[in-house]
Amino acid sequence: MKTPRYKFCFGPWNLSEGQDPYGPPVRPPQSFDWKLDALKRLGFEAMMFHDDDAVPDIDQKTDAQLRAAARALKRKLSDAGVTAEMVAPRLWFDPRTLDGAYTSNDPKCRRYAIERSLRCIDVANHLGTDLIVLWLAREGSYLREAKNARRCVDYLVQALDRMLSHDKRIRIAIEPKPNEPMDHAYLPTIGHALAIAQLTRDPKRVGCLIESAHAILAGLDPADEIDFAMSFGKLWSLHLNDQNGLKFDQDKPFGSANLRVAFNQVRALERNGYGRRGEYVCFDVHPFRPTKVEHWLAHLENSRRTFLKLVHKSRSFDEAQAQALIKDRNYAALDQLVIEHLLGK
Ligand code: GLO
Ligand code: MG
Question: Is the CB of residue 300 less than 8 Å from the CB of residue 256?
Fold first, then answer.
């Protein structure tokens, strides 16, 4: 098997404790150091962060305290040989984000969201990454009549512009998701993310992050989303995982629900040269709730293992035969070629 050039990443939240809306945590909380050590033991190269994963209680900290905490973390990461892939403002927890963050109807809350995002950029600077990820969790509506969607687009552009002008080097990757926690989100797909980029003061610095489960929840094929984003040179990060149909966001291990959809994502990444500009393959996956403590890292290790096996499957696919079948419009045989290739000998 050719050695793949991919570099891997996950976030501290991916070592979750099993809490869901119906029940409490089922695994004991672990310290950040435990999680960093787990990442190292698994041989992953980078960690992704929410601003308050990096600087706990960020809203209570002065700028000087923020700087001290972020720099201490940066030293810890450097000592461990781990890179910070991105920082994302957590704009869905504080009471001021209850009715939306950038798109809240309350100007004080919109101001808070922007100020928090600028501080998130400062954290990213201290950690040595230029990538800010925006999962716009509460930018949408529970009921159409509560918000003015036209005005909300303006609010989103204003927020993006403030961030872009706060630091001339950062890049913003929008992570679209069509629903959950909202009924409908304002930026549900990659098309929406790339379209709003064009309204900002520096479209070149606004791109996207694709999460497999989010594309599936939008009724789209994640591989097509990858090809679309990469046609624009705008796929700057990736949350690979899996999703079994239209229900709550499951964050299953990569390939766990639909191996063929996973295979096609890997093929799309391969044909577009994902990773050549230093992009990481991140897994936004969670352990199944019944997972025992001793199996706590398996979903991450398995996702990477499946990914690498699919890289091999992608590189060993009989492309010549596939092309011949395509030319003959023999899609039944093409279908079977893919199935038998995935099944193996
Ligand atoms: C939730 C998202 C979430 C983001 C993370 C980074 O559905 O996938 O996990 O990726 O908060 O912004
Ligand atoms: Mg995600």
Answer: no
